[in-house]
Specification:
The chain is of the alpha/beta class. It is built from 14 helices and 20 strands. The structure holds ligand BES, manganese (II) ion and zinc ion (ZN).
Amino acid sequence: MIKIDVKAGAAAKQRDDAVVLPLLDGRKLTESGRAFQQATGKVLPDFLRKFDISGAFSTSRTLYHVEGTYTQRVMLIGAGDERKLTLHGLRRLAATAARKLDKGGARDVSFYLPELNVRGASLPDKVQAVAEGVWLGLYAFEKYQTEKEENKRALRSVTIMISSRRDLGSAEGALANARAVSTGTNFARDLANEPGNVCTPEFLGEQAAALKHGKLKVTVMDKKAIEKAGFTALLAVNQGSAKEPRFIVLEYQGGKKGTAPVALVGKGLTFDAGGISIKPAAQMDEMKFDMCGSAAVLGIFKAAIEMNLPVNLLGVIASTENLLGSAAYKPGDIVTSYKGLTIEVQNTDAEGRIILSDALAYAAEQKPAEIIDFATLTGACVIALGSQASGLIGTGKKLKKGLKESGDHTHDRVWELPLYEEYQDQIKSKIADIRNIGGREAGTITAACFLSRFVDDIPWAHLDIAGTAWNMKGTDISPVGATGAGVRLVVDYLSRKGKF
Ligand code: BES
Ligand code: MN
Ligand code: ZN
């Protein structure tokens, strides 16, 4: 990740390769732009008058070698209607400006973005959003490409400019938060973008173990240890794969000793072919992303360590492939889970809930204060919410409220679906305790009903990230591939918790 600093100082005095000034609708400059205009005479007013520049959101125009300044170029970036500007708008602007300047060959640049007014946002909020935009927007996964854009990268540093020296302390704190959460998000993206032949359960275990730290203990169970512990539902899904499963436990102690942790549980399907109920060939390659839940969990731990989050966390990841080897579990099989509940397998492609049953039951046994699980669980969730929000379902009222607030704040959004008792009927089995599919209707909810049987009465929230965890179009803050969904959301949730 490139270097980012915060500073206070006038635009006309900066010696960087570029100064980025916001321009609002109606070609209106903000405070630094007006001061810049005073220092440079008629250049800016002439430019604004003569060229087709509007201030429309995300458009930009660049002037070179403006007399009376020390910078090579001034980029005016459209911020649109200030009343409609959001923190996510700032994230997008910062990402867009950084990428454009990089392509144009600028090396060290100054962003006068935090002086934009965003309703309900503090200066630290704005600084954090700008830094996240730069770090997330410049992310690239080029490990397997001989010609790397990264080698051509011009941009070396971004300075985020604020109006008053007095705010430097709080702005630096915000920058540190942005660094931690961006590191965690980009780490989750890196793991998830790895292909299935590299990112195996064993690899996930190694990556988790490498996070070990003074405050973080990591235990990785191999197949033998999993058999001994009795994670039989995970073993059933693993039967069709030649690769060993892994069960990963992370214990982070950032809070008081003895305080019950928040449990973070992740689905780590390193490749989901569907098993004997095989998936169609089209886009099956995307099922390498079926471990994004576990990547989010690891990304959150990475951020927690870097931020020194004052909370206790328990991480639990169940990881396997879902393939079709001759020993594969079959439709009709009845699996006895770690908790003892029996599961009638009617479709081997509904495997996520099966492995999560053991991970959730184990997590609940540790008596955490809350449980949050992350899973690319259902295609139905992609149909319901698309890529704009993760599905949120659960029993923890305060937990869900907190997640909704953090979702709005971080733009890593969630949308709640109901867990009405009546839906439980859909997963009734005639010959076992429950069955692993609930029919065509309400597929995301019935998957959550299944999970709900394994969390006891601990406040619980399930995040179905099937539609948000990766994208094949790319956005301003994420290229094509894994997005790191869930990391910003839950790091924000945990940070607020730490404050109370
Ligand atoms: N990993 C998939 C869910 C998925 C599908 C995520 C498409 C993202 C895009 C999960 O294991 C699965 O296959 N679910 C089935 C469940 C069904 C058989 C009840 C699904 O959603 O089709
Ligand atoms: Mn599946
Ligand atoms: Zn799956």
